[in-house]
Amino acid sequence: MTRASETPADATAAPTGPRHAARAALRRAAVEPGSGTGPALPRSGPAGRAVGLRARLLAPVADRGNALHPGAWWLWALGLAVAASRTTNPLLLGLIVGVAGYVVAARRTDAPWARSYGAFVKLGLFVVGLRIAFSVVLGSPVPGSHELFTLPELPLPGWAQGIRIGGRVTAEQLVFALYDGLKLAALLICVGAANALANPARLLKSLPGALYEAGVAVVVAMTFAPNLVADVVRLRTARRLRGRPTGGVRAVLQIGLPVLEGALERSVAVAASMDARGYGRTAHVPTAVRRTTDVLTLGGLLGVCAGSYGLLAAEGAGYGLPLLGAGLLAAVVGLRLGGRRSVRTRYRPDRFGPRSWLVAASGVAVALLMIRANAHSFDALHPGVVPLIAPELPLWPALSVLPGLLPAFVAPVPPASPTREEPSA
């Protein structure tokens, strides 16, 4: 009697779909050449080494052991944000947003915080509209000769000189407001990409011991928005299934109460878990060490803030990078000393592996290349509005954004879920 083909015991637990099956087959072929239905692969020689190298370079399916460090995602996103802050060219800003969106689509999981990316995109569009509305109502210092329409101007007292409400609205001021709003929207979307890709709980666990108390507050604040979005989506879906309206003031009021109740329940659960884990206990540290730690940490963080502002400002790259480096060094030393007060331990701490370094380096590379491009191609990165000219996509700045796509190929692939599985043949 012919026996049916046997399958491994863990085949039902492994991710399915053509993409994962092809990747698993390639790895099996690299380990056991000749197995399977395809042609036999050589065990040694140049061809065998090429197959083994390709299998090692393929992004593995994500699990607890090979997941990317959450700090790598934030460094990558902040690098894209720095690049977006160096230009007002809408084509370059659209390219940066496209790179961030592609990586999010390729490496986003089904976790609640991963659903917040769409909310950040909508917030960015709202910022663009609000910036244009402010320009129309409050005017703009940008002169223009292409008048579109004139609003009734509200007379203001003498102490409000320089401020006007209403008046002429020109095409130049609207285009300037659009460019400015697009830059702010790109910054928000980059932050939203980090919020959708990085696990906030693991980010909290990776913080130094000296920042544990502050980190709890920051992570709770970061997780509030994603959980709020998830609750709203869940409640709107439930109302739609019951045939109830999901729009209007009444629907918003009926949805708001369960959302607030869920937020309160999560707060109580977090407080109970913190109390059970001994949150707030500290070890004894000499006074001199504590004061030195405070000075180094505070001075380092101020240096980091000033250096970051210099990198994000239009003309601060000269002093921003050295100040950022000195601030980081002082902050690391201070946090290292301050960690002596923490008596907590880490269970399976996250480490910066080679793939995490590649992801972080890709964001830093985009920021550095865009800063250098801003120094040599300022006019291309900041198209003029007086006179009005059509923006062009400069070649080298556009190529400088492309390294930001690296995480979509080197980061571990999220495991397939039943809702995201591709239909098998």
TrEMBL record:
Residues 1-20 are annotated as: Disordered. The keyword Membrane applies. It is found in: Membrane. The chain crosses the membrane at residues 73-105, 117-138, 210-233, 295-313, 319-337, 357-375. It comes from the Bacteria. It is a multi-pass membrane protein. Residues 7-19 have a biased composition (Low complexity). The keyword Membrane applies. InterPro entries: ABC/ECF_trnsptr_transmembrane. Keywords: Membrane, Transmembrane, Transmembrane helix. Coiled coil: none annotated. PANTHER family: COBALT TRANSPORT PROTEIN, PROTEIN ABCI12, CHLOROPLASTIC. This is Cobalt ABC transporter permease.
